[in-house]
Write a structure and sequence with these properties.
Number of strands: 7
Keywords: 4Fe-4S, Electron transport, Iron, Iron-sulfur, Metal-binding, Transport
Number of helices: 22
InterPro entries: 4Fe4S_Fe-S-bd, 4Fe4S_Fe_S_CS, Cys_rich_dom, Helical_ferredxn
Oligomer: single chain
Helix content: 40-55%
GO molecular function: 4 iron, 4 sulfur cluster binding; metal ion binding; oxidoreductase activity
Strand order of the largest sheet: 2-1-3-4
Pfam family, one: CCG
Organism: Sulfurisoma sediminicola
Order of helices and strands: HHHHHHHHHHHEHEHEHHEHEHHHHEHEH
Structural class: mainly alpha
Strand content: under 5%
């Protein structure tokens, strides 16, 4: 029997706070990982039959996280329920479910924390809002911690700087520990460990895909642009989201990367061992998984002897690279094990390690090493969507805010028509696409559509008033999410694309230069 028809919420005339609809998203739940998926990546397969055992394991894991991560304990203690974050979450705006208010989603864990880790909660639980961990509470954790994209917009507006994403990550880490993991994220992590990318695309299939890409670009441009795989001694190792290898519009950006390297005369390669930039270990709040996935990149860089590591257009991949690679794997600096030291000696210190592809392209533009025909993009009136993890959890360039300016500078260098969306919806206060943080799965499509509402409203404004017909972004998840949800809001799914898709359209190759 078909389920209820899923519709996008109506556009609002003014960005008002929605009327509360308690429990409206209680039935929207991600599929639970099977025992096989859980155990394949080292987690308990399922919940224990004895609730007390599950309860004790969950509380023990919470205690472990509180002891390891000082910030988590600070976040548990410092919220004053001021409500500044309430209407900043795209999921609350779109669903009106009060448990999707960031403060309320945090409270699911904070109330349990007070019960077991504070003296007032142990002695007078009802007076301080402390709650026992029950199966019903754990179910709420699973439902609502998987209705958070870890975008951190609420944290920008929190007067105490509480990082709600860290609370979500802790909740998910506890759930995994007791055997209550999410199918989508944990299955993907298993594919990365086994094959090297989120899609489970084996080396021969990847090689065939790249060969076909070379033929397509040759037919389109008459130039032999190479998309190399496992080339020893190349200068650059490109690590990009696996969606770039097959999906539209993602592959158009991969074509653009290759054209940039070709035009600049930079030797580069992809790696079949580490063909995935994405790192879902961050989504599930498990730093061991995050490190294990990132180590594949270190191993590939060492084996191939590259001098530079460059990350493609993927928001959370860039956050993982920028914020975690150095300390977890020694890519650039940080770790001090022998292989990390060996890699640090191998990589060229004249370049940021790692670098974002936008940093590489913008540097080449400033050096005059790339030439463009901007009129090739004249059929496009372009706006730019800042992806959450780039905007609020990383940087580019040599100054604060470079992550905002550099992609826009590239767009303006390759196209004549650019329009900004409303100022409160871009840069540091950008709205999430609605599909990040591990919720890009079909069973959560209702959540994803509703969560996209604020971004769709800002897009509609510039589409109606300025004729915008192309929204560029530098995140694979944003591209996949928007491609899916744009039609629900009356837009063409091809309205979204990558920054390097625009670069690819305008760049001059070969004799054209």
């Amino acid at each position: 029997m078909a389920g209820p028809e899923i519709k996008a919420p109506a556009f609002r005339e003014f960005p008002t706070i929605p009327a509360l609809q308690p429990g409206s998203m209680a039935g929207s739940q991600a599929y639970v990982a099977s025992e096989k998926i859980q155990e394949a990546i080292g987690f308990q397969g399922k919940l224990d039959d004895d609730w007390q055992v599950t309860h004790d394991k969950a509380i023990a894991k919470m205690g472990d996280l509180l002891g390891k991560y000082r910030g988590l304990k600070v976040f548990m203690d410092s919220c004053v329920h001021c409500g500044a974050c309430t209407d900043k979450c795209h999921y609350f705006i779109g669903t009106a479910d009060p448990k999707n208010m960031p403060v309320a989603r945090q409270e699911l864990m904070r109330s349990v924390y007070r019960r077991y880790f504070t003296l007032p909660g142990k002695l007078f639980p009802s007076l301080v809002g402390a709650k026992d961990l029950t199966r019903e509470v754990l179910d709420d954790w699973y439902t609502y911690y998987w209705q958070c994209s870890e975008c951190r917009r609420c944290s920008v507006f929190c007067p105490y700087g509480i990082d709600t994403a860290e609370v979500t990550m802790a909740g998910r880490a506890i759930l995994d520990t007791v055997g209550y993991g999410q199918k989508y994220s944990n299955e993907i992590i298993g594919k990365v460990h086994k094959i090297g990318n989120n899609l489970g695309l084996p080396g021969p299939a990847l090689e065939n895909t790249l060969e076909g890409l070379e033929e397509d670009v040759k037919d389109a441009t008459g130039v032999d642009v190479k998309y190399p795989l496992d080339v020893h001694g190349a200068e650059v190792l490109l690590v990009t989201p696996s969606a770039d290898f097959f999906a539209e519009p993602h592959i158009e950006s991969l074509i653009g990367y290759g054209k940039v390297f070709h035009a600049a005369g930079i030797s580069w390669t992809l790696s079949s061992k580490a063909s995935e930039a994405g790192n879902f270990g961050m989504f599930i709040g498990n730093y061991d998984q995050l490190r294990k996935i990132a180590l594949r990149i270190r191993e590939a860089a060492l084996e191939l002897g590259v001098k530079r590591i460059v990350v493609g257009e993927c928001g959370h991949a860039w956050r993982a690279a920028y914020a975690f690679w150095n300390t977890l794997t020694g890519i650039g600096a940080g770790a001090n094990d022998p292989f990390a030291i060996e890699l640090q000696k191998q990589l060229d210190p004249n370049y940021k390690q790692p670098s974002h592809i936008c940093e590489v392209t913008w540097d080449l533009i400033q050096q005059g090493r790339l030439k463009f025909d901007k009129s090739a993009n004249d059929d496009r009136i372009i706006t730019f969507h800042d992806s959450c993890n780039v905007a609020r959890a990383s940087r580019m360039g040599d100054y604060a805010g470079g992550q905002f300016d550099i992609p826009r500078n590239i767009i303006k260098a390759v196209a004549n028509n650019y329009v900004e969306m409303e100022s409160s919806t871009i840069r540091e206060t950008t709205f999430c696409c609605g599909g990040g943080g591990g919720v890009l799965t079909d069973e959560l499509i209702d959540l994803r559509i509703k969560g996209a509402l604020p971004r769709m409203e800002a897009l509609k404004h510039v589409a109606d008033h300025d004729g915008v017909n192309f929204m560029a972004t530098i995140c694979a998840i944003c591209k996949a999410q928007f491609t899916k949800v744009l039609p629900y809001y009356g837009f063409n799914m091809r309205l979204v694309g990558g920054v390097h898709q625009l670069v690819s359209t305008a760049i001059k190759l070969g004799d054209e230069q």
